[in-house]
Design brief:
alpha/beta, 3 domains, Rossmann fold, 5-stranded mixed β-sheet, 13 strands, YaeB-like fold, 371 residues, 6-stranded mixed β-sheet
């Protein structure tokens, strides 16, 4: 029996712009990146809404699959994936829409067609995904879409689904990024070859990206970037260019670097105590002994907190998130320590105690809170 499929389709707005006059097409293009209908001037909004309603009704009535494929690149890829008969299976679909009025509206029209043929469909409006703002686009890819792929798609594959990326529709910039992600998270990527009726099928590469090994080789740089600390261009000279971007002399993770980080950091942070990422922080002689017996989840908390503490020491009092809560001890010194911060707030809620010495902060021990 074949595996059930989860088909992830990138969605654009070609469904609205195909077979329309130039004036309407230009209007749709002009307002393609507006987040809400209310952001469009009333006269143009009314015209676009009428077109949306008409196109939705047209798709609801249409029974000719060839006609639907001609109008919608997304449906073209999906229907061809099923050999021309979308009712042959009952799969789950996720339609990735831009964070725009027209992007979501278009995806919902596609969803209606797929649901009519018995499929389960989710329209995922990817927060901040827009094609007119490179910064928003990068944020949407790295902080929204990539974590979703890592967490959600892995769950489907573990549950026995075959994950398929349909990249026939959608904007070119999104398609390119999904092609890269498909090498890691999809079992197969499909695409209708230009000017033909053939479905190009690209199976997953028989290689595995050793994210942990790559991260360990450049761990200090990645940790400082993740902590929000400055990393100068000279400090990433030995880091592959594909993993970092440099802007105005400061380094940030590239989209590939973001993928490596999200894939591996939990395992690396849970494997053992990591060295401080600032010379302003050192471990006391008995600190590591107080960590004996901690499991990976607690060790990850310790390392995350130490990275926050490093930033606190470099930036000063302007940085002190609630998860860190760095402060002097109430009542003064206790067992040689003068300050404390959270290690973790759940379970037995332990604290990290330390003191300042010769211009550096010394972590003395992990222990229960004093109050």
């Amino acid at each position: 029996m074949p595996k059930p499929c989860l088909i992830v389709s990138t969605c654009g707005t070609s469904l609205l712009t195909n077979n329309v006059g130039s004036d309407l097409r230009n209007m749709l293009t002009d307002y393609a990146n507006q987040s809400r209908a209310e952001d469009v001037p009333p006269e143009q909004r009314q015209c676009i809404q009428q077109h949306l309603d008409a196109r939705r009704e047209e798709f609801a009535r249409e029974t000719d699959l060839k006609r639907l494929m001609d109008l919608s690149a997304e449906l073209n890829g999906v229907i061809r994936f099923y050999g021309g008969n979308p009712g042959v299976a009952r799969d789950q679909h996720v339609l990735l829409a831009t964070d725009t009025w027209l992007g979501e509206a278009t995806a919902r029209i596609v969803a209606d067609v797929l649901e009519r043929h018995g499929h389960l469909v989710e329209v995922k409006r990817v927060r901040d995904l827009r094609t007119d703002d490179p910064a928003s686009f990068r944020w949407a890819m790295s902080d929204e879409l990539m974590p979703w792929c890592a967490e959600t798609l892995k769950g489907y594959r573990d549950a026995g689904h075959r994950v398929v990326f349909n990249r026939t529709g959608g904007f070119t910039s999104v398609q390119g990024f999904m092609q890269a992600l498909g090498m890691i998270y999809a079992d197969e990527s499909v695409y209708v070859f230009e000017r033909t009726e053939q479905l190009l099928r690209l199976p997953r590469l028989p290689v595995q990206l050793d994210s942990e090994d790559i991260l360990r080789r450049h761990l200090a740089v990645f940790r400082r970037i993740a902590a929000g600390l400055p990393v100068r261009e000279a400090e990433v000279a030995d880091v592959p260019e594909s993993l970092v971007n440099v802007d105005s002399g400061q380094a940030t993770r590239s989209l590939w670097g973001e993928l490596i980080w999200r894939e591996a950091y939990r395992a690396v942070y849970g494997a053992g105590l990591l060295e401080p990422i600032t010379p302003k922080l050192v471990f006391g002689p008995r600190f590591q002994q107080t960590l004996t017996g901690l499991g990976p989840d607690r060790l990850r908390h310790i390392n995350e907190r130490l990275d926050q503490l490093a930033r606190r020491l470099e930036e000063g009092e302007t940085y002190n998130p609630r998860s860190l809560d760095f402060k002097p001890l109430q009542g003064g010194e206790h067992k040689g320590s003068t300050h404390e911060c959270d290690a973790w707030a759940d379970q037995d809620a332990k604290r990290l105690f330390g003191h300042f010495e010769d211009g550096r902060y010394v972590i003395d021990r992990l222990d229960k809170g004093l109050h």
